[in-house]
Each structure stands twice: as C-alpha cells, then as structure tokens.
C-alpha cells in the first residue's frame, strides 16, 4: 500500500514539475540560442542541448514506463505492445539520458579550460560540435544494447482495479549492459573531478586577483559560479539516480525500483532550475 501511494505521489509531483518546467525551459533556452550575447557563445548552446536532453529523457520515461501502472492508459500501452513499439520508446529514453550525461561532462570541461587558460569566451564552435558528436556516439552504445541484446515488453496484471501493464526487461547479453554501466560510472566520476577542479581553480583565481581585476571581473565570476553550482547540483542528483538504478537492478530492491522516476525527475529538472536561480544574467 505504501509503495502504491508513493508511486502515485511521485508521478504527480514529477509530472506537475515537468508541466511547469517545459514552457519556461523553451522560453529561456530559446533566449540562449537566439538572443545576443548568449547566442554568440557555444557554451550556452551546449547547456541548451544538455538541458533539453534531460527534460526529454524524463518525459519519455514518464510515457514509456511510469504511466503503465495506471489503468486509464491501458489501451495506449496495449497498442504499443501490439505494434512492438516498447523498445523504440525505451531507446529514446536511454538515448536522451546518455546525451545529458555526456554533455554535462563536456560543459564542465569547457568551463575548466576557460578558467585555467583565462580565455574570454567559451565560443568554441569546434568544441561544441565535437562534444555533441561524441555524446551521440557514446549514447549509441545503449541503443545497441537495448535494440539487439535486450527484450523490452509490458506484462499485464489485474489487481482488482482494472488491467494495467508493468514494464519488463529480458537481457540476452549481460556484458554490454555491464559495459554501459561501467562507462556511465567513469563519466560520472570524471564529471565530479572536473567540477571539483573547476571550483578550486575559480576560487584560487578570484583570491589572487587584485582589486581592480575583481571589480572588472565581478560579473564574470558570478556567472562562472552560477555555472559551477549548476554543474555540481546536477551531478549530485544524477549520481543519486544512477546509484539508485544500480541498487534496484543488481540487488532487486523494490523501493529503489519504484523511486527511480523520482530521482530521474530531480536529476532532469535541476539543471534548468539551477541555471535560472544561480545565473542571474539569464533571467534579465
């Protein structure tokens, strides 16, 4: 009974959060892409790719997995099952999640090189396109695993309140799934290291700057701090989501399995809200 109530509450909470976030994200991300001076900076474009990927990952997860336990959507998921579209929707979910994970690392690395080399811009178009291409390539490993070595389907149950589906996964080859988990763990650790170094270098640079430089660079430091905080908070929530996912799958902990959507929602939505809260120039 507790798990059922928890599942409905988390679904309602994340769904409402998505409904609030999506229109605001479209507005502010459009500003970063089309309005100067943000549109001239490829770092912001990478942030947009990361933020949209997070939101799309959460949205597709909601549609593919989370709503299956609600009898009112039974006919929709029956249609997906009959048309063999379950794996297709699952692929989109994991693909967007992979894009979000890898672009977060590239964003942190870009900010680190900007601070260390004291570059002005972060307007590196080559770095942007390279980051996106590598993120797509690395995320494609999940697609190979899901499409060729995993069978995703819905299993129907009826507990008295009407028929409903629950997602099920049959893994044919464990090695690729394990490899993707290891790759995710490595990228997550690398993101943590880069973010910590970024915070240290920014703090040292600010502490050694003279007063004139501090006055001239005050706004820039605030912007950098905002991006650092955004990266760190986003990383923390994604790490919680990843650990919860591993515990649910490898140790068969029921509560962790149900809580996966809550942690995914937090990991997906916090990058946008942290960016808005801690980067004041974007709100103007």
From TrEMBL:
Keywords: Membrane, Transmembrane, Transmembrane helix
Residues spanning the membrane: 12-34, 46-65, 85-109, 125-149, 184-204, 225-243, 258-278
Segments forming a coiled coil: none
Protein name: G protein-coupled receptor
Keyword Mitochondrion: no
């Amino acid at each position: 009974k507790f798990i059922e109530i928890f599942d409905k509450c988390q679904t309602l909470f994340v769904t409402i959060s998505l409904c609030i976030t999506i229109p605001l994200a479209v507005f502010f991300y459009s500003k970063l892409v089309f309005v100067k001076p943000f549109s001239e900076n490829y770092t912001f474009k990478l942030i947009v790719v990361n933020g949209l990927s997070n939101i799309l990952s959460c949205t597709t997860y909601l549609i593919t997995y989370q709503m299956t336990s609600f009898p009112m959507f039974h006919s929709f998921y029956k249609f997906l099952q009959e048309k063999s579209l379950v794996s297709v929707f699952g692929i989109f979910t994991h693909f967007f999640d992979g894009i979000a994970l890898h672009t977060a690392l590239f964003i942190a690395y870009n900010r680190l090189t900007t601070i260390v080399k004291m570059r002005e811009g972060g307007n590196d178009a080559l770095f942007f396109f390279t980051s996106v291409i590598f993120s797509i390539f690395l995320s494609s490993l999940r697609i190979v695993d899901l499409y060729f070595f995993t069978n995703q389907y819905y299993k129907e149950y009826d507990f008295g309140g009407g028929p409903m589906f629950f997602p099920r996964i049959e893994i044919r080859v464990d090695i690729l799934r394990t490899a993707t988990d290891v790759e995710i763990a490595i990228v997550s650790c690398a993101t943590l290291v880069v973010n910590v170094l970024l915070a240290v270098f920014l703090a040292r640079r600010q502490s050694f700057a003279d007063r004139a430089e501090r006055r001239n660079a005050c706004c820039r430091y605030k912007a950098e701090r905002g991006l650092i905080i955004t990266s760190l908070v986003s990383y923390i929530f994604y790490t919680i989501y990843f650990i919860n996912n591993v515990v649910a799958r490898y140790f068969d902990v029921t509560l962790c399995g149900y809580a996966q959507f809550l942690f995914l929602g937090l990991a997906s939505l916090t990058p946008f809200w942290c960016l808005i809260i801690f980067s004041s120039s974007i709100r103007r």
